[in-house]
Design brief:
The protein is α/β, with parallel strands linked by helices. It folds into three domains: 87 residues, Winged helix-like DNA-binding domain superfamily/Winged helix DNA-binding domain (Arc Repressor Mutant, subunit A, Orthogonal Bundle), CATH 1.10.10; 92 residues, Periplasmic binding protein-like II (D-Maltodextrin-Binding Protein, domain 2), CATH 3.40.190; 97 residues, D-Maltodextrin-Binding Protein, domain 2. Strands 4-3-5-13-6 form a five-stranded mixed beta sheet, with helices on both faces. The protein is rod-shaped. Belongs to the LysR transcriptional regulatory family. GO terms for molecular function: DNA binding; DNA-binding transcription factor activity.
């Protein structure tokens, strides 16, 4: 079945004149005649009948016309959807853990000189991993290593443990502090739904410190806001987002804990040139 021939068939059925239909289709009259003859040979029935200088649909042509209209309508919708997909493909979809989204990601896009349209989604690492695998995101920025053979990832920056205190706090002027020195103050921790809660508990457990949080939150942005408003202090991985608040950050002496943030994407898939260039630029910058 030739979709162009079906278009010719539909146009001739409307105009009912070979010469006028050929002109409307911007093809030669012999070309139109050949297309209609090919369809008649394919279907084994005459599709048109002559009426003087004009033509009209035969009984068979009228029956087939119903299906032709449906096929052409579906084809038009398919073309429109394909155009929409091509337009959407030009937009790079970025899934980022929240600590990197407000500062680090915009800085990276600016440094690269990004001119492509993009969307940044704030998600947690497991959601980003899932989104990369099912094609929801093109590039991910994650807070820990994604253990999947279908994803490639490269570290882009390190983090370290710090205690965040409000301005005016007794610890404000310290350049460095031990974990035990923080234990006597009200602690704000990540909620148990956050992957960082396990990290906090592990850090305290390594030094035999038991901490009962005064409150908890899932997002580092919320935790930092609680610290800023005097609800307590928080020991957490240092991230750029902290600088956006009126707080003081003090590095904590720990047993050498170190964490990394990664740029990630699925190993295989169709990529736009700009998406590929952005990923390779940052891969090269850090290797």
């Amino acid at each position: 079945m030739n979709i162009e021939y079906l278009k010719y068939f539909s146009e001739l059925a409307k105009i009912q004149h070979y010469g006028k239909a050929a002109k409307a289709l911007n093809i030669s009259q012999p070309g139109l005649s050949h297309a209609i003859k090919s369809l008649e040979e394919e279907y084994g029935v005459p599709l048109f009948q002559k009426e003087g200088r004009n033509v009209s649909l035969s009984h068979y042509g009228k029956e087939l016309m119903k299906d032709v209209d449906e096929i052409l309508g579906a084809y038009l919708r398919l073309e429109e959807r394909a155009v929409g997909l091509r337009t959407e493909e030009k937009t790079v979809r970025i899934g980022s853990v929240y600590p990197l989204a407000p500062g680090t990601i915009p800085h990276m896009l600016r440094e690269f000189g990004a001119t492509f349209p993009f969307i940044i989604y704030n998600r947690m690492t497991p959601e980003i991993a899932e989104g990369l695998l099912d094609g929801k995101y093109d590039i991910g920025f994650c807070s820990d290593l994604l253990k999947s053979d279908e994803i490639e990832y490269y570290p882009i920056r390190d983090s370290y443990i710090a205690v965040v205190v409000p301005k005016g706090h007794p610890l404000e002027n310290r350049e460095r502090i031990s974990l035990k020195e923080t234990a006597g103050y009200p602690q704000i921790m990540f909620s148990k739904t956050s992957g960082f809660r396990t990290l906090q508990e592990q850090i305290f457990a390594e030094e035999g410190i038991k901490v009962k949080p005064v409150c908890a939150a899932e997002e580092i942005e919320v935790i930092t806001g609680l610290v800023e408003n005097g609800f307590g202090i928080s020991v957490l991985p240092y991230m750029d987002i902290v600088r956006l608040h009126n707080v003081v950050t003090i590095p904590v002496k720990t047993s050498g804990w170190n964490s990394k943030f990664y740029i990630a994407r699925r190993k295989y898939g169709i990529r736009s040139e700009q998406e590929e260039a952005f990923f390779q630029y940052w891969k090269k910058e850090h290797h």
